[in-house]
Predict the 3D structure of the following.
Amino acid sequence: MSLEDKINAVPETVKNTPGLGKSMAKWAALGAVVAIPLPFTMPLGAVVGATYAYWKRNKRG
């Protein structure tokens, strides 16, 4: 599976997995809060948090 295929599968997975969007939002917010001391890293912290939630869902299911 190519990287493009994996990227395109994310929205469908979020839509079809109950609670995943909420979990991704919570972890993204936490990542952004943790990154507050370095303002230029806040978006990166949010991306890392959302990615963690998505990865965690894949490990469970």
Q: What stands out?
A: Residues 23 and 33 are 15 Å apart (CA to CA). The mean pLDDT is 81. The chain is about 80% helix and 0% strand. Residues 19-60 form one domain.
